[in-house]
Amino acid sequence: MRRSAGSGIAVALACALLAIPVLTSCSTGKNANGQGDELQVVSNPVAATAPVSPAPTAKPAGTVLPAGSIGAMASDGAARILAVAAGNVVSLYRLDDFGSAPAVVTLDGPVERLTTGTGELLATIPSRGEIARIALPGGQLTTVPVAGAPADAVPGPSGTLVAVRDRKTVDVVDDGKTVKTITGGLYSADQIVRAGNSTVVLDRLRTAVFTVDVPGGTIGQGLRAGDGATNAVADSYGRALVTDTRGGALLAFSTSPLLLRQLYPVAGGIYAIAYDPARSLAWVTLTERNEVVGFDVRGGEPTEKYRFPTIRQPNSIAVDEATARVFVGSATGEGIQVIQP
Predict the structure, then answer these.
(1) Taking Cα atoms as reference points, which of 85, 105, 83 lies closest to residue 94?
(2) Which of 18, 100, 249, 331 is deepest in the core (most CB within 10 A)?
(3) Do 192 and 163 form a contact (C-beta atoms < 8 A)?
C-alpha cells in the first residue's frame, strides 16, 4: 500500500482501516445526538465538490464536440450508446457513429446522475423526486416517483437500488414502487456501487463508505474514505474505487469484507471516475489541472498508463470498453471530448 508523505495522511489511513466500533479515538466530530462519531472528523461536515478549473493552457487531446454544460455521462456497451445529460436534456449518441446527431430525451428536471442497466438508462432527478427510465437504444421514457431527492440509482438483486440523499436511505424500487427502505448510520446517501455480489453506499458528508445488506435491509460496516470522497465505481476485482478529492487520492476498497486495500496519492483535484473492464483501467479527471489520467489497477498499486490534457472543468467521464475511447464532459459548456488512447 502506497501513501503520501506526512503524518496527517498516515493517521487518516490508520483510522480508516479500523471498523466503526473502535474508531472513537480517531474522531473529532459529533453526531446528531452530540455523541462521538467514529467516522466524522469535523463538527459541521460539508460534502466535497469538484475544484474549479483554471483556463486551459494546453490544447485538449483528441476531438471536441459542442455541447451544453454537462452534468453526467454514462456509456452502454451493449446498446452502443453514450448518454450525456445537460440540464434536463439527455442526449443519446451512437458510439459507432458518434458524429451523427443524437436522439434527445427531455426530462422534468436537471439530471444528477446517469447509470446503465439491462437495456435501459437510469437518470436521477432530485429536484422532482423522480427516476427516469430511458429504454436503450430507442429512448422511450417512463418515470418512477421516489420520496425525497434521489441522487443515484443502479440495478440491484431484487429491483432498482436508489440512494436518497435527503432521507439518508437506500430504497429498493420494483415495478414502479418502493418496496423496501434501508436506513442506519448515514448522513447522506449519495452513490451506490455494486461490486461483485456486494453493495456499497458512498456518504459524501461523512466521507465514508458503508456496506448494504439488501436482503436483510440493513446498513452495515462503514469505513472512512479519505478527507472528502466524491465519486466511486466498481472494478473487475470486486472492489469499489473511490476518488478522495480533498485528500488527493485514489482509494480501493474490497467489499467482502469492507477494507481499505490501497491509498494512492493523485494530485490535481481528482474527481470523476470511470472504469474500463477490458483493460483494467481506472480513468480519473483532475479538475485543478484540466487533465484525465488512466491508471492500471491490476497490481498492488495503481500504475499510470495515460495522461491527457482536457477541456475546462472535466467533471464527467465515461469509457467505451469495446474501443477504449474515453469521453470527458465539461461542466462549463465547452463540449464533449473524445480521446482514443
Answers:
(1) 83
(2) 249
(3) yes
Q: How do strand 239-244 and strand 249-255 relate by DSSP bridges?
A: antiparallel
How far from 235 is each of 152, 213, 275, 283, CA to CA, in Å?
18, 20, 7, 11
248: cell is: 488527493
CA distance 169 to 13: 27
Distance CA 206, CA 45 (A): 7
Please tell me the distance from the alpha carbon of residue 39 to that of residue 60, in angstroms, as a whole number: 39
pLDDT (tens digit, 0 to 9) for every residue of the chain, 341 residues total?
A: 444 333 333 333 433 333 333 232 233 344 444 444 666 666 678 999 999 999 999 999 999 999 999 999 999 999 999 999 999 999 999 999 998 999 999 999 999 999 998 899 999 999 999 999 999 999 999 999 999 999 999 998 889 999 999 999 999 999 999 999 999 999 999 999 999 899 999 999 999 999 999 999 999 999 999 999 999 999 999 999 999 999 999 999 999 999 999 999 999 999 999 999 999 999 999 999 999 999 999 999 999 999 999 999 999 999 999 999 999 999 999 999 999 99
Taking the C-alpha atoms of residue 161 and residue 178, their distance in angstroms, rounded to an integer, is 10
CATH fold for the domain made of 7-339? Methylamine Dehydrogenase; Chain H (2.130.10)
